[in-house]
Design brief:
Elements (H helix, E strand, L loop, with lengths): L1 E3 L2 E5 L5 E4 L4 E3 L5 E7 L2 E4 L1 H4 L7 E4 L7 E4 L4 E3 H4 L10 E4 L5 E4 L5 E6 L2 E6 L11 E4 L14
Length: about 150
């Protein structure tokens, strides 16, 4: 359980964030913060853009390094490693669709909607309309925020 902005959140066993609504839990998008976005044993890694390896964003075995850390602000995702500066390839830290469904990083990024589904979230790019086929899990980097059983479970 986490308290963020006066709200209580918990990540349930289906990998969906829930918010306490006073008398019940409701599925919600993750609160603003830094996450590792994973699918199975792999995570979305933007570190490839830092090193000028294309495509700039790839699935890679989860290692939780800064290339796999993404800041969610409620509508955009920014890669921690690229945002730190010194990128040899990506023009900016924001996740975007390169135009053919391939993920990339650039200075403006695309706006996303996170849709709670069984197993996590489908990610919809609001510019292209493309929705991810495989749900992903948003693991908060503060370990206490990912624990189960600390509060009523949705």
């Amino acid at each position: 359980m986490d308290i963020n902005g006066g709200n209580m959140y918990t990540l349930n066993k289906a990998n969906i964030w829930y918010i306490w609504k006073g008398t019940s839990w409701a599925a919600t998008t993750p609160f603003n913060g830094t996450y590792v976005i994973s699918s199975g044993t792999n995570s979305v890694d933007g570190g490839f853009g830092y090193w000028n390896v294309t495509p700039y964003v790839q699935l890679y075995p989860t290692n939780r390094t800064t290339g796999q850390q993404w800041i969610w602000n409620g509508s955009k995702l920014s890669n921690v490693e690229v945002a730190a500066g010194g990128s040899r390839g990506a023009t900016g830290p924001f996740l975007a669709d390169s135009g053919n469904g391939t993920a990339t990083e650039n200075s403006t990024g695309d706006t996303f909607k996170l849709i709670p589904v069984s197993g996590g979230y489908n990610v919809q790019d609001l510019r292209t309309g493309i929705i991810s086929v495989t749900p992903v899990t948003f693991w908060c980097l503060e370990p206490h925020r990912n624990r189960f059983g600390l509060s009523p479970s949705p």
